[in-house]
Amino acid sequence: MPQVMPSLLHAQRQFIGILGEHADRGVDVDITSLCERFTFDVIGKAAFGIDTDVQRNPDNPLFKDALAVLPNITTGFLYHLGRE
């Protein structure tokens, strides 16, 4: 876990920075999309050792491919079972 912390902190700082930028401009933010990208950044670095930077670059091909492979990840039976 200690090896993951710097990556998590970096991703968290980016997340907060993006929220701040939107707030400064008075622009709405798609929080669902931003949280997905935050999660992808953390998992990419922690599990695979790769910097995806999808929080700043949502057009990252790896991220787009992952979304295409798992388009309904939050609509399945197990997802809803865990929410009740």
Commentary on this structure:
With 84 residues, the chain is mostly helical. It has one domain. Helices cover 65% and strands 0% of the residues. It contains four helices and no strands. The chain has helices spanning 5-25, 31-48, 61-69, 77-83. Helix 1 (5-25) packs antiparallel against helix 2. The chain starts with a helix and ends with a helix. The mean pLDDT is 85.
Termini separation comes to 29 Å
Question: Structural class, from helix and strand content?
Answer: mainly alpha
Q: Number of DSSP helices?
A: 4
Mean pLDDT: 85
Radius of gyration (CA) equals 14 Å
Strand content: under 5%
Biggest sheet: strands, sense, closure?
Answer: none
- Quick one: how many beta strands? 0
Which key terms come to mind for this protein?
single chain; mainly alpha; oxidoreductase activity, acting on paired donors, with incorporation or reduction of molecular oxygen; monooxygenase activity
Describe the structure in brief.
By secondary structure, this protein is mainly α. The protein has helices spanning 5-25, 31-48, 61-69, 77-83.
Helix-strand layout with pairing:
Elements: H1 5-25, H2 31-48, H3 61-69, H4 77-83
Helix pairs in contact: 1-2
